[in-house]
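User: My advisor, Dr. K., asked me to get a structural model of this assembly before our group meeting. I'm new to this, so sorry if the format is off. These are the inputs:
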Amino acid sequence: MKINNAERDAVYKTIFARRDVRGQFTEKNIEEDVLRRILTAAHHAPSVGFMQPWDFIVVQQQQTKALIKEGFDAAHQRSAEMFDKQQSSQYQQFKLEGIMEAPIGICITCDRSRNGPVVIGRTINSQMDLYSSVCAVQNLWLAARAENLGVGWVSIIEDAVLRSALAIPENIDIIAYLCIGHVSHFKDKPELESAGWLARRDINNVIHFDSWSAQSNNK
Ligand SMILES: Cc1cc2nc3c(=O)[nH]c(=O)nc-3n(C[C@H](O)[C@H](O)[C@H](O)COP(=O)(O)O)c2cc1C
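Assistant: The format is fine. Below is the predicted structure of the whole assembly, which you can bring to the meeting.
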């Protein structure tokens, strides 16, 4: 199957228009068939040895979300203390989650023992299963964008909070907690870029040819 130019352009458009969304969620629920499509896209991510180590926990209950939000608030406060004074005050102004506002949350996990101890491709680099679950996150993120749904990754939270709120067994690794929903609008740029926190790096400074130390194209 060949991808035609219009289809190619749609993929790039989706990649560049994807944003991490925290503050623009609306109350509209996600249609069941749409949710199924984005989860199916996630389930079709590449995985080491075709291990498919992920599970997806869809969080709909406000009560469960409230537990997660509480965990975020505590972690967020502790995080603010890690920055220097000036950065800390800017950090505290950012909205870094949309846990209660998003109609659903999705926790993506990694079962590192799935399909037995020896996995093709994970024999030497043991983290490859974790990376596979991250690939599922990205597939879901892009599929959601193609459905005009916003996704926000909430990482400022202790695993123990998610484990307890979602009854995740000890042998299962937690990869991501995502907030997902319809949005009022998508921003053109990352919020941290617009706020002057960090700029997008020049692509020429991150591409190397043949070795790390070789001059990149345009330094
Ligand atoms: C692994 C990972 C964890 C992240 N955790 C958070 C988070 O806890 N809160 C938040 O507001 N954004 C989080 N983000 C979003 C990033 O800040 C965002 O991707 C980055 O600023 C670029 O913006 P964009 O995704 O809109 O292009 C996370 C992104 C990734 C990939």
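One thing worth pointing out at the meeting: Residues 19-20, 22, 96-97, 153-156, 190, 192 surround flavin mononucleotide (CB under 6 Å).

User: Perfect, thanks a lot.
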